[in-house]
Specification:
Radius of gyration: 16 Å
Low-confidence stretches: none
Strand content: under 5%
Shape: flat
Order of helices and strands: HH
Structural class: mainly alpha
Largest sheet: none
Number of domains: 1
Length: 50
């Protein structure tokens, strides 16, 4: 996949997410919460791969 195509697809995705936020379909999540959940998932995956 070329960089230009990736950029275009991410723009489409960002626009879709912005529309969902503006319409109240989804709620924003604080970055700290996202990081906490991501770390927990990575820890679980790491433990399962051992």
């Amino acid at each position: 996949m070329k960089l230009k195509q990736i950029e275009e697809e991410w723009l489409v995705e960002a626009q879709r997410r912005a529309r969902e936020l503006d319409a109240g379909i989804v709620q924003p999540i604080q970055a700290d919460e996202v990081r906490r959940k991501a770390r927990a998932l990575l820890e679980i995956a790491s433990l399962q791969s051992q």
